[in-house]
Amino acid sequence: MLFMPMSGMDKVVLVTTLAATLFIYLRNRTRSALPYPPGPAKLPLLGNVLDFPRSFPWETYARWAKELDSDIIHLSAVGKDFILLNSFKAATDLLDKKSAIYSDSMGWDWLFSSMPYGEPWRERRRTFQQYFSNRSTHVYQTHQIKFARKALLRLLDHSEDFFGIIHHLTGGVAISLAYGFKIQDVNDPFIDLSQRAFQSALNATLPGAFLVDVIPWLKYVPEWVPGAGFQKKAKAWRKLQAAFRELPYAEAVKSLASGTAMPSFTSHWSEKLVNTSDSRRQEGVVKDVGAIVFAGANDTTVAAIKTFFAAMLSFPEVQNDEPNLPYISALVKELLRWRPVTPLALPHQVTEDDVYGGYHVPKGAFVIANAWAMLHDEEDYPDPFSFRPERFLTEDGKLNSAVRDPSLMAFGFGRRICPGSHVAVSMLWLWAASFLATFSVSKAVDEDGTVLEASVEYQSSSVTFHPLPFKSLEELIRSHSLAEA
């Protein structure tokens, strides 16, 4: 969601700033003769503060787009502008084709996916891509295969803990890729730290999560002032993220020194650090990128594999198809489409005034692609709420290139697209192929043997789209072949 519920004190602070925002409001009204894109009716000064949805916002934005008959809609909040893009065409026209002016961001210390557009951001992205290029599949697939095999073997005896096993699988892959040190078999503290730190970072980067996003000068208000609750949360989050950035890196350095570390992103770049006056900055880049490798590979992949279980439970008939290679690829595409891990792409910020479709896009506006709306567009994907991998196959069972690939929307757009998308798809493909060759998912039964109907619900207001815990029974199909593998 874009706006968190405001406390009474937050509302007091908001009211006291209305006079200051009047200037912004009047300036924005006269900046361009062209109209803003359509959107919900706005209150004077406040704009749409009271309209921002608190749960499943991507669904609300898609509904507004249909009601207003416009794939681009405008919202405002106390002088800040938000542009929601609800079609693939609008997203590619602006975020891809005009990426030179649509690639800025709000800014965050180490989370380079939200850093302002500039050389620090470019250096971190370049550092990531040089190690995880498409040509270096062996770099990450070796780790993925090892931990997937461990997870499948553990499912033999602990199928009731499949969520915990998946967290350990993705966390193990992420740590081995980023840092190369060994993790505990259960309850690893670094995996827990990753989940808490990354979620706090994402929540902090949601536009409008606090009043300070729309009233920037509030960041100078001391945390003891009524209504400055964001200061206390931000302080706690900074402490958590500092620990996440420093502690795993320190553990990696210790493993390197003892000779117990496996090859990893950190070991690769640590060997290239030059002992110069610039080495401290270089090490900071390695820490930043290592942290995002760890966090991103862990959280988003967990969500995707959980959705795999949710889909198999909700649509068990798809397990009846022969799991050949094209079918697995089609299934992975449908997983990315049916429940996208990030229904709303991370915000871009436009650096200068622009015009699109006869509408004014103001400088400084947050521009957000609604991937969920695009991936549930009935024109591209008939019966969009059903899980149907066969939609991506031709009649003779080959992948159908005429159907738009969901990965074009599921991983963001333009220069802010997820640089590790191929790593995530590789992990999801490997898991789906390995699991379906060994297990099937069936509905749970109660103590009396009564089959319980599937009920899968999702978190309604998280940046990453996770299914809530649900019950299912993983019935082993070919246990002997797995145990002997």
Please explain how this structure is put together:
With 485 residues, this protein is an alpha+beta fold. Helices cover 47% and strands 7% of the residues. It has helices at 8-16, 18-30, 57-68, 88-96, 119-131, 137-157, 162-178, 189-205, 229-258, 265-270, 279-314, 325-338, 371-375, 407-410, 421-436, 479-483; strands spanning 72-77, 80-85, 348-349, 354-356, 359-361, 366-369, 439-442, 473-476. The strands form three sheets. The chain has a four-stranded mixed β-sheet. Helix 6 packs parallel to helix 15 and helix 8 crosses helix 11. The chain is globular and about 65 Å long. It starts with 7 loop residues before the first helix and ends with a helix. The model is unreliable at 1-5 and 476-481 (pLDDT under 50).
Strand and helix layout:
Elements: H1 8-16, H2 18-30, H3 57-68, E1 72-77, E2 80-85, H4 88-96, H5 119-131, H6 137-157, H7 162-178, H8 189-205, H9 229-258, H10 265-270, H11 279-314, H12 325-338, E3 348-349, E4 354-356, E5 359-361, E6 366-369, H13 371-375, H14 407-410, H15 421-436, E7 439-442, E8 473-476, H16 479-483
Parallel strand pairs: 2-6
Antiparallel strand pairs: 1-2, 3-6, 4-5, 7-8
